[in-house]
Amino acid sequence: MNRYSLLQRMGLARLPVSTDAERKVRRQMFTLVGVLLVLGAIMVIGFGVFHQRWVFAFVPVVWLCAMGVAFLATRIANANYDGKKHLERVGYKVCPACEYDLSELPDAGTCPECGGEYEPAMLKERWRDIYTKLEEKVGR
Fold first, then answer.
1. Rounded mean pLDDT, 56-64
2. Whether the predicted model's global pTM rises above the 0.70 cut
3. Cβ within 8 Å of residue 92, ≥6 positions away
4. CB-CB contact of 130 with 92 (8 Å)
């Protein structure tokens, strides 16, 4: 098993056809989630253990962070949709292993970036599998 597939299984690999802007939005969202967790812990410990009422001053900040996470999540969903539409526009001619643009190359051959073999039917099937997994909901 190569490193990329291991990272994909763990959910740590970047999503297909992700742009720098999308990765920046993901980092922002993870930062906000971290802030939410820290503030939530401070509030629980502050009020639950020490019975301090001043921790309720964090409620507006927690609410703003939660709204920020929701906003960024919609931006990420839009980026996934745009990535899928881009793949359809270029006929799925993007290497699934390294995301190299294969649109200027012959229909079948070897990716010049990673050396992986490709053909149109394989590319289409692979990208559809990737996006199907991304769209699956937890619990199905």
1. 92
2. no
3. 120, 123, 124, 127
4. no
